[in-house]
Amino acid sequence: MIRTAFGTRLGSAPLAGLRRAGPALFGLSLVLALAFAGGCRPRYAGVEADAFSCANGFDDDGDGYIDCDDLGCSAFCGGPTDGGGGGLDSGAGGGDGGTVGFCGDGVRDPGESCDGKDLGGESCATLGLAGGPLGCSIGECVFDTSSCTGGGGCGDGICNGGETCSTCAADCGTCCGNGICSGTETCSTCPSDCGACCGNGVCGGGETCSSCPGDCGACGPVCGDFSCSGGETCTSCPTDCGSCCGNGVCTGGETCSTCPSDCGSCAPFCGDFTCNGTETCSTCPGDCGTCAGSCLYDWDFGTLSGWTASNTCSTTGWRVDTYRAWSTPDALWYGNPATRNYDCGGVSNSGTATSPYVTLSAGSPTVSFEVWMATEGSATYDLLTLSVIPLGGSATAVWSSGTDLATPGSTGAVWIYDSVSLASWAGMLVQFQWSFSTGDAISNTFEGPYIDDMLIGGSC
Known about the structure:
Number of strands: 16
Strand content: 15-25%
Shape: elongated
Radius of gyration: 53 Å
Number of helices: 8
């Protein structure tokens, strides 16, 4: 038994074996055994700052700290040391075994998905991919699935491989709300990150003169804001500027009937209840009375007087109405008294009002009537038509609101007198039929057509 200077014993059996190996080998082996058994490991006196001196178990620089407890070894021990026995080294030298976690120390710390080979038990398969080796990104400590199979790339549910909320929102989530105005975010798309747009000097992102006058400027005048300004006139905007009637100028649709103070008195016309001018009992029996020996049918529509109505809508159609009669008490009207228009619940509608049979004179029969009409103003839709139907024959239109009114579909909120020759049916037994058709299901909220004082005249 040999005791070394460091208290290490070498047994006789090992030494006997070395002796049998030969004098030279025995001598070399004995020297090596004594050296290492006694702790004679390589050391670098005065230096403790490289890969060897920081892992040999000695205090090479004599500062009282060994290996990774020494501040000089921080670069080789994976991070900062505490230089006082509380560093990363848990070996000799008074180390306390304490750790300071950081990405790259090989240990998965809180907030890290992985660190080096420490994957926390995860694999490509547990992340929903087919297989392959799962890696850990250096310096980021997040999973690297670039070597996994059966997935990867934007849309795999994992934010990695350089993906960001800007390049792959499907994996990394939206950027809006992270407090950073970046990528494609703007004050319009993400005001929480980029701030409100109003005040940036640019009128955009849904801003208007009302919501952000600082960017879009003050709003111009609008008809209906109860301020007559910005070029508005009684003609262009009577709501704000008031009626033009009374300003001494006959404009804006004014007529001698609607505003005689501006336009002057109207010239005599048939239907004004005064037989004057060139009117006669033949040309205007409504004003001048029936000529002696003439045949006359006069419908003032106090009642339907034998007329029959047929309508496609149960609530809207032809009826006798007192609301806007030319002569008391009533007029023939197409509409719905509950709404004062001809809408039928948003569907197209139509109807006819047909007179009883009358015999026309053999001379020069005519039909005259008063008409008031307010529609969308079309020559195609909302048409009012008067037709003649001879006994056993078919209907022939003799008057239409689309062609016989100065403004198709409208009389300008006044009653208008008109007459039509019936010479083609002289001496025949005929019926008269008023028809109205919306033609579509839209813009049907106008008041509609009225007919009054319908006269059938002519010499007998």
